[in-house]
Write a structure and sequence with these properties.
homotetramer; mainly alpha; Arc Repressor Mutant, subunit A; Tetracycline Repressor, domain 2; 9 helices; about 0% strand; globular; DNA-binding
Amino acid sequence: MRVVRTNVRSEKSMEPGLADRIRAAAARLFARRGFHGTGMRLIAEEAGVSIGALYHYFPSKEEVFLSVLRQEYDQRLAEAQGMWREGVSAPEVVRRVVELHFASITAGHESGRLLSQAGVGSPLELALQILALREEYATCIADLLSQAMQRREIRTAHPLLTAYALLGLVEAVTARALAGDGTADELQRVGPAEVAEIAWRALRPDKEE
Amino acid sequence: MRVVRTNVRSEKSMEPGLADRIRAAAARLFARRGFHGTGMRLIAEEAGVSIGALYHYFPSKEEVFLSVLRQEYDQRLAEAQGMWREGVSAPEVVRRVVELHFASITAGHESGRLLSQAGVGSPLELALQILALREEYATCIADLLSQAMQRREIRTAHPLLTAYALLGLVEAVTARALAGDGTADELQRVGPAEVAEIAWRALRPDKEE
Amino acid sequence: MRVVRTNVRSEKSMEPGLADRIRAAAARLFARRGFHGTGMRLIAEEAGVSIGALYHYFPSKEEVFLSVLRQEYDQRLAEAQGMWREGVSAPEVVRRVVELHFASITAGHESGRLLSQAGVGSPLELALQILALREEYATCIADLLSQAMQRREIRTAHPLLTAYALLGLVEAVTARALAGDGTADELQRVGPAEVAEIAWRALRPDKEE
Amino acid sequence: MRVVRTNVRSEKSMEPGLADRIRAAAARLFARRGFHGTGMRLIAEEAGVSIGALYHYFPSKEEVFLSVLRQEYDQRLAEAQGMWREGVSAPEVVRRVVELHFASITAGHESGRLLSQAGVGSPLELALQILALREEYATCIADLLSQAMQRREIRTAHPLLTAYALLGLVEAVTARALAGDGTADELQRVGPAEVAEIAWRALRPDKEE
DNA sequence: TATGAATGAGAGTTCATTCAT
DNA sequence: GATGAATGAACTCTCATTCAT
């Protein structure tokens, strides 16, 4: 059951290919209903294609899920790496990445929910692949953290562990901010600043270093 | 939705009642395989009871899951509140709660994995109840944080948000530490100290206050 | 699986025995919910006894049902035979038996519903026993009809067939009269007279005989 | 409750579609074993299709049953209405409809048994729908009776009540004629004539009118 | 006698996947 | 390429019945 990278961008035309339509539909449904709550029939209907078409572009439901997840991680990673390459300072990167996470849930994309679901409640083999994907993402973040440590922009710590800690921290708060009650609204308002503050305090170098 | 019989402690003998055996088996399986990956038949086999017995003690699979979750949260909460009432200082509480989280996974209970799964990949109604349970837990932690803030033991911040942040932070790292590879072993070693450090830096009052 | 006749009347005391309490409860439930819709647990609760007690008095659910059915048939038969022995004329017997059927449903006993259910939707072996019970009842009616034919009070016809025809006729109308809508009320009002008229016309001797 | 696909006649070939095969198998089994005695697995086997196919054509077991019932009622109704439209006289219609009922059981279709089961021993909601179907059928017969009354071909009486009486009458005798013993054979022989006689005497106008 | 915890076969239903067209 | 009818293993849950106490 190897990973298959289907066309992220249609090669021939401007309009999105069927694979993209399917991925977009699946992303919405997985985020709202989870892996098991989302049937292939439902994805096909939401995407406006037949079940046969689904299986033409993706070998299995698990691959649909992984494809969606990969896309989400890639987007987030591209943003962070882009900023980093442009020379944005460490605390500023932290602040803006946190902001982006909150923005994605406020915009109703609900992709934040998708990420925090990753790896749980899934068939065993799928769970492993999801963890691998998450590891890939976390490793990239750990790389950025390592570079920042060498430049003394953030304090010295275990990079991968810190990366996971940051991910968990942000995801837990954004997940709560998606609940839809009054508290959720409040967290959406104060969340970006508060979470960035927490993250930065956890990362900043000691005063006299 | 009938009331669940919960004989947490058998009255006559030392050996645990069937309800406890079931809960323990379910906790193991849910942690390893998630809600959907764990069938009632499997739980019955793991607990060494019949399916009928399962439904004698719990009205549905969802109630089994919630019962397990409730038990885990209650245990953790009791530990933290116990320490707090005994007058342990804030940084020490943080350090020891983090230690306990890591200890529970090292002991093979895998309950840490269970908690981080909470609320995802589940039937919609169940997801809401899981979130409610998590909120209850987070609220208790937020209460402790509020008290610590009033005593100037930790810095002033949004208590509930901070509670969720701490939960997410710890869970993300412990989840990674359960993967079973070399990195996981490393995280189990350095995790307690590093995570406590991150948490304390995020919480500690500013120097001149 | 032989038929067991349990105490129809308690031998020692005036108050009804447990067997009677169970039969009464079962009669209510079977009439309202049918054989499959009525569980042993429910019967036990309605009768205010334990499941163990149920199985102490009746060897199986099927026997509970048969016992209830037998009781109903016996009652109806006793009424008809009583009238007949008292020398009531044939058309009058017809009229009053029909009236009694309607009266039993108007009084809310719902036993009428029970009889019209008999023999259908039941496990195969039970269905045969129910048919046997019904045959017993029909045979008794056929006997009465035979006697009336010999006295030239009703026309000559196949007695057993006529008995079944009368049963079916009355049961179909009473079943409709139990539906609970406006038409049902109307049928409860006009039913006794109209059904008796139909029955009598089907039975009465030809004018010049 | 989704719409049932009912391809009553296959478009391309002569052989019946799967839905018809399923309906036919279900009709046989329901007639012999009742609603609860007939499992979906059994229907699938009898029809020579998979369980999945069953659920592809019918959303639930209840809908299979209702579909079968509808088919039976429709057939009978079409016969009676056809004769009526062709100007067959009232007593002749009665005689031939009764004959048809008996013919259907002699032919081994056993559909007669199915109709007399209608509405009993079924889940509550299903029972209501069955009664509704039966009411529909009875109402059509009542219409025919009304027309015959206006033409003075039969005596004046409550049309709907009379319709139910006729149904019950015929069904009770045919049900007994299906028991398989010697009496059943006898009833199959004399039944058509005797039942038609009973029905006609119940319906015929008074001599001097 | 009387209890109700425990059993487990079997129920209706879902859904990822296949494949002839 | 595209379709959707067909498959069947696996699911959660029910309930008549047993038996140690």
